[in-house]
Amino acid sequence: xxxxxxxxxxxxxxxxxxxxxxxxxxxxxxxxxxxxxxxxxxxxxxxxxxxxxxxxxxxxxxxxxxxxxxxxxxxxxxxxxxxxxxxxxxxxxxxxxxxx
Amino acid sequence: xxxxxxxxxxxxxxxxxxxxxxxxxxxxxxxxxxxxxxxxxxxxxxxxxxxxxxxxxxxxxxxxxxxxxxxxxxxxxxxxxxxxxxxxxxxxxxxxxxxxxxxxxxxxxxxxxxxxxxxxxxxxxxxxxxxxxxxxxxxxxxxxxxxxxxxxxxxxxxxxxxxxxxxxxxxxxxxxxxxxxxxxxxxxxxxxxxxxxxxxxxxxxxxxxxxxxxxxxxxxxxxxxxxxxxxxxxxxxxxxxxxxxxxxxxxxxxxxxxxxxxxxxxxxxxxxxxxxxxxxxxxxxxxxxxxxxxxxxxxxxxxxxxxxx
Amino acid sequence: xxxxxxxxxxxxxxxxxxxxxxxxxxxxxxxxxxxxxxxxxxxxxxxxxxxxxxxxxxxxxxxxxxxxxxxxxxxxxxxxxxxxxxxxxxxxxxxxxxxxxxxxxxxxxxxxxxxxxxxxxxxxxxxxxxxxxxxxxxxxxxxxxxxxxxxxxxxxxxxxxxxxxxxxxxxxxxxxxxxxxxxxxxxxx
Lengths: 100, 309, 189
Prior knowledge:
The complex is a heterotrimer of chains A (100), B (309) and C (189).
Chain A: H1 3-23, H2 27-51, H3 56-87
Chain B: E1 5-6, H1 12-38, H2 42-46, H3 48-58, H4 69-87, E2 95-96, H5 103-123, H6 128-159, H7 164-169, H8 176-179, H9 181-194, H10 219-243, H11 254-275, H12 281-308
Parallel strand pairs in B: 1-2
Chain C: H1 2-22, H2 29-49, H3 53-77, H4 93-113, H5 127-136, H6 140-161, H7 166-170
Helix pairs in contact in C: 1-2, 2-3
Membrane topology (chain A): Multi-pass membrane protein
Family (chain A): Belongs to the complex I subunit 4L family.
Subcellular location (chain A): Cell membrane; Membrane
């Protein structure tokens, strides 16, 4: 178990999550991709903490990432609910008004 | 730091047996109460758990069309596993199977996995009433889980440690149940919640044909029912170091005191749970967030003031 | 011990990545959600290996809870159900694969090629207590920043998602004694 090993696993999680976030059409599935990317970030932060600078700052950083995940989920669910209620849309392609 | 001996992994077996004993006593107590209500011989009630086990072991399994078999299996088996993981951090007097420095958080994390297991048990059979029961459970879990979290915080705060043995040792003078009654009551309600028992049993209610239990029979049903009683028992066992002074007591050895206290609490939970009316999940949600959560937060504030002063 | 830790870590790593990949391969919404939960639990347990007891348990706790709720939303909002009607639910698949592989190669290569500095300092004997003291001491500003963000999230989430506002509930002049709710609450408001 080395720093490199943990970081490569974290990169793999990040890559899989990136694939999901880019390729999925349904809003909730996109959120799952984002969560998986943040999962990789948590693991990478833990690896850096343990192998480079094991003081409490790293732990605080991980808690902030977890907090960011909860905010992402809560706002994602709220927006998905609103989209679904107002136009029965569940796909990202149906909510592209702002891109035009 | 109070000395507890971390015993080897093999000692998880006696801990599991003790948990099983508490669970069987809970099931027997329930059956005895039913027998007394119905005017049946109490002795048939006392052996009812054994009879039911024998009956279910011989019953064929029910299979439903297009069931999600792997997830269903995880849900059915998960409750029992969660109960065993909960008691893994409980010190039985001076010995403990796993002496985690964050035992209280461990208990909390494991009781959250019950959300997943009950929902999966309801999702698996691909049946409407099962899924209604599963959704009911999530709705009431959202109501009991946050108060339960803060109720777990109170003893840890008073003891200044998340290690279960430290929490038990911090109650030399006075049990936490005595001077933090709100936290203890909310904890007990949370135990009834994750054991899907008593007033919080609507996910398995008769009005939805048994809900999560509607489509399971034979050994599968036995696993789920045993898992519920094991969770009730695990909640009672964990309450002993957290609120009831751990293994402290005259004459008897520590582990026996833990067992006695857990048995008394589990029978009390069964008796009180039988007498309370069912809480409708939609109503209970508001109750949990508007009443229980502020109450337990005030309790934590009081505990914090006592600790600081 | 270190060999055991190595084995445990690699098992958890494989579980985390494979479960993460299954999230986007399963047809069933429940399976996809709980595959993600498994991935999080594996990472949470891996954190225990590097002495992050408290943070690891919090990751498990939070994520199992989130995924249990996530499953509800998945089933509610997946208008097209790939379990009933097999279909491809992806767009720009090739670009996404290229981006994901590029991201992995970039990050993984960086992890292997960067000359990492040597470890600075030693972990506190009780990491959880050190974390608590940091949060209540030198890092308090972080928590003070996170808490208003959380409150804002709760308020904004409800404001966005709630179908009926207070004028629907209490009348145009807010003078209705009891709120007119389709689903009465539990405390009799």
